[in-house]
Amino acid sequence: MWSTFRFNTSADISKNLRASLENFVRLYGQRKDDLQQASEHFMHAAALVDKKHEDFDDKTAQALLGMFGGTIGTVFGGVTGGVWAALGAVSAATYAKFCGNINAASATVGFVGGVFGGVVGGAFSGLIGGLVGVAALAAGREVHGIVSDSIWFTVGFAIGGATGSTFGGSVGAAGGAVGGGFGALHATKAAVYLVRKAIDFPSKTKVRKGNGKLKKEVVTMQKTGADFIKSIKPLVDELKTVQEICDQMASCDAVKGVANQTAKTLAAVNAMEKTMNDSQMEADESEFLRCVKEASSQCKIIPVELQMMREEVEKLLVSP
User: Fold this and answer.
1) End-to-end alpha carbon distance in the chain
2) What is the pTM of this model?
3) Residue 140: exposed, middle, or buried by beta-carbon count in 10 A (0-12, 13-18, 19+)?
4) How does pLDDT run across 158-174, given as a tens digit for each residue?
5) CA separation for the pair 301, 283 (Å, rounded)
């Protein structure tokens, strides 16, 4: 009969509650330093995961955006540079024809050289302008202004004019300069505009827990989290016993403070364990990082709850 029912009288319950509370205080005193150290280790590991992810994301995003911007700048610069160069070369050839300083063959050579100069000047300047403009965008700085526009126009103008002059004489120089200048200007604006649009609509990414950049930090975080849970397990087991006894003494006002604090502490532990489990199964990157931050916050709360639990226990133990 005694083995079936753990407690038979109020005296038995009170005696067992006191013994359990005293055991909790003893365990807390023994494990307090280890508990604090395990908590700090876990929070440090979680912070490393977050920082490593941010560093990896920033560098990777900037590199990818820079490549994207440079590619757009090259394409737009080459195409628009060729179009503007054709217009410039035709205008220059027409003017020279009216002045009687050019023949049909020279005009044709000049036109071809001018278009080639415009493509080269626009593409090269668009490549550099796209890279620099997108880098400024990623850094949160102003990417367009009179000074920057003037710089890229001048660079494209010079490169296009020099290339066009080499292959098409004066007509080629005029066409190449016009094409290179306007091609560079359009290319940098197009690159920044399209990259900004791409940033406004980010796609969902999968968590890179297996990536070499993060794998070590994630494994460390999971290990330190498991160590933390292990370090508080004896305390948690004792608190479950306290909770069981307090439930049987629910009508006793003296134990309500301990009962309430026991419930809060166990709830904090359960919440962290659930968050840790969720983080290991989470595939979405943003959700995984949210779990990491949440678990870190909960890990910080648990030692505080245990300290408050000890204070409640000591108050009850010294009361009549």
Assistant:
1) 31
2) 0.51
3) exposed
4) 998 899 888 888 888 89
5) 26
